Amino acid sequence: MTVHPIPVDHNDPTHVCTCMSDRGINVQLHEGQTIRVTLSRDLVTWADKTRTVTPAGTVYEGVAKNITDDGFFDVMTTDGSIVGFYAHDSTFTVEVL
């Protein structure tokens, strides 16, 4: 899934981007929308020298936040955690709930 951002007026609180999957399904993602993000493959992250692997199939449900015009967005989960995604890495799928 790749998110192609729509240019946004940053004075407008309604940020929008379009999610396009390799299956040809387009989803408009709006700031404040409830979504489910599912990792489609293992995600490897590094913090200092610590390597963390989040396994494929991990699901994050919450509210879309901080959508930027360069393809970044966050999911604020029900427990208050914020998980960030870069739209162009194609390692996840997005569903609007």
Structure description:
The chain has 97 residues and is mostly beta strands. It has one domain. 0% of the residues lie in helices and 55% in strands. The strands form 3 sheets. Strands 9-8-7-4-10 form a 5-stranded antiparallel sheet, with no helix packed on it. It has a 3-stranded antiparallel sheet with strand order 1-2-3, with no helix packed on it. The radius of gyration is 13 Å and the shape is globular. The two termini are 17 Å apart.
The parts where pLDDT drops under 50 for at least 5 residues are 1-8
Helix content: under 10%
Number of domains: 1
Instruction: State the separation between the terminal residues, measured CA to CA.
Output: 17 Å
Secondary structure category: mainly beta
Q: What's the number of helices?
A: 0
Number of strands: 10
Main sheet makeup? 5 strands, antiparallel
The topology string of helices and strands comes to: EEEEEEEEEE
Give the rounded overall mean pLDDT.
76
